[in-house]
Amino acid sequence: GAGVSQSPSNKVTEKGKDVELRCDPISGHTALYWYRQSLGQGLEFLIYFQGNSAPDKSGLPSDRFSAERTGGSVSTLTIQRTQQEDSAVYLCASSLALQWETQYFGPGTRLLVL
Amino acid sequence: AQTVTQSQPEMSVQEAETVTLSCTYDTSESDYYLFWYKQPPSRQMILVIRQEAYKQQNATENRFSVNFQKAAKSFSLKISDSQLGDAAMYFCAYRPIQGAQKLVFGQGTRLTINP
Hints:
Chain A contains no helices and ten strands. Chain A is mainly β. In chain A, the strands form two sheets. In chain A, strands 2, 4, 5, 8, 9 and 10 form a six-stranded mixed beta sheet that branches. Chain B is mostly beta strands. Chain B has strands spanning 3-5, 10-14, 19-21, 24-26, 32-39, 46-52, 60-61, 64-69, 74-79, 88-96, 104-105, 109-114. In chain B, strands 2, 5, 6, 10, 11 and 12 form a six-stranded mixed beta sheet that branches. Chain B has a four-stranded antiparallel beta sheet with strand order 3-9-8-7, with no helix packed on it. In chain B, strands 1-4 form a two-stranded antiparallel ribbon. The relative contact order of chain B is 0.35.
């Protein structure tokens, strides 16, 4: 079946602008995660959604970052007033509730803030 | 806090030979999962192999196997009969069974396969 999809694939923006990144999880997956991968670095956890529970926002680096998940499916990560240090690849992953241990990743969105 | 360390930023191997990628981690938990993910230039993270800490037997998946040493908190990945398609970044990751569901990743090892 279809995997996790993300859009856009690449995004170039100017410092100070807002951006929205979209993630479509695998159908039926109730858990959804956002990670950030800065150049040459490992992945850094940002936020986690599970069903109707309150999201785990413990990884969000500042209040300029927010995310929502509508209808338990699609998620949008919003970065307000972007800064150059926000430039990174943003990866989304999803998993089944009964198979918590395996997270399936999308291809990511590469964000470049000029 | 849990941490994962990959001490080899880059590794290279001749095609058809065997290579081992190192990973160590730090945790006070007794039950957890460990993973190796592969990230080719396409950016998509692909699960290579996983290990449950309560299992003593090392996980294997075709040409990929792990050497899990729980007491030493070591989790290395062995790739046998290396193929050109194995060239990628490899990330070791940790997740506790209880509590936070996030994966904690190492910094990655870039693997080059020489023909």
